[in-house]
């Protein structure tokens, strides 16, 4: 059995206690680091309603509880007023969370400029352009088996602020490629924070720390690109997968 992260391996063994731990291996997911690479297209970014010359924090993901978007919207309200909030968010899984997100976005737009919500599916080149112009990428998920979106942002040389849960800590190197936000979670399978207000405060602090020092955020982004290429490129992932099969054949 191959798990895409050590976090997922632990979940597999917890869910299936009869499985022999020696037969569950970790091979991280990967990305095409040629397709996902920094490409600045300021005109394309402006066409999407974002100013590429100003600081921005970008979220990309489905509108689900797992992705933690409501926590992000509460946290980013504390960011400096000139920081743009860019949401590439659609496909809500319930009417309830859509209503909640709509209300939070509306509240943000009443108190700050530069809140951009793109609710349609963008092509990859437009997502790359947004990531390449961003100061930070936010991943407020309360669970991710690995978090490929973080790899995509890192490959575009964007600093990542992500929750320290699931496989995210295996991707984001805290203080090197971005920031990990601590979280204590309810053990009922939902990933809900035990103290939501504390998590929102910690997420806000990490986002503010990242956008306040643009030069450091840029350095984190460059380090993220190196990490994505060295550890998560498809060639590396393919070789590690082959190693698992070779070991199985030898056994």
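^ structure tokens above, recovered residues below v
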């Amino acid at each position: 059995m191959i798990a895409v992260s050590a976090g997922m391996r632990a979940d597999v063994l917890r869910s299936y206690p009869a499985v022999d731990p020696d037969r569950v291996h970790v091979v991280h997911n990967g990305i095409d680091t040629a397709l996902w690479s920094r490409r600045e297209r300021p005109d394309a970014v402006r066409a999407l309603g974002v100013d590429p010359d100003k600081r921005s924090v970008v979220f990309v993901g489905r509108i689900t509880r797992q992705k933690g978007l409501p926590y992000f919207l509460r946290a980013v309200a504390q960011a400096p007023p000139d920081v743009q909030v860019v949401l590439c968010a659609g496909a809500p899984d319930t009417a309830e969370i859509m209503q909640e997100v709509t209300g939070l976005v509306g509240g943000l737009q009443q108190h700050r400029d530069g809140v951009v919500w793109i609710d349609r599916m963008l092509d990859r080149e437009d997502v790359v352009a947004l990531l390449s112009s961003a100061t930070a990428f936010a991943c407020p998920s309360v669970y991710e088996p690995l978090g490929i979106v973080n790899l995509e942002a890192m490959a575009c040389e964007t600093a990542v602020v992500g929750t320290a849960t699931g496989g995210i800590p295996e991707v984001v190197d805290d203080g090197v490629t971005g920031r990990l936000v601590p979280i204590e979670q309810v053990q009922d399978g939902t990933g809900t924070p035990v103290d939501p207000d504390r998590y929102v405060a910690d997420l806000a602090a990490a986002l503010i720390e990242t956008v306040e020092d643009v030069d450091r955020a840029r350095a984190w982004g460059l380090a993220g690109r190196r990490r994505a290429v060295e550890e998560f490129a498809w060639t590396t992932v393919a070789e590690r997968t082959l190693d698992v099969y070779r070991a199985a054949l030898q056994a």
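DSSP finds nine helices and eight strands in the chain.
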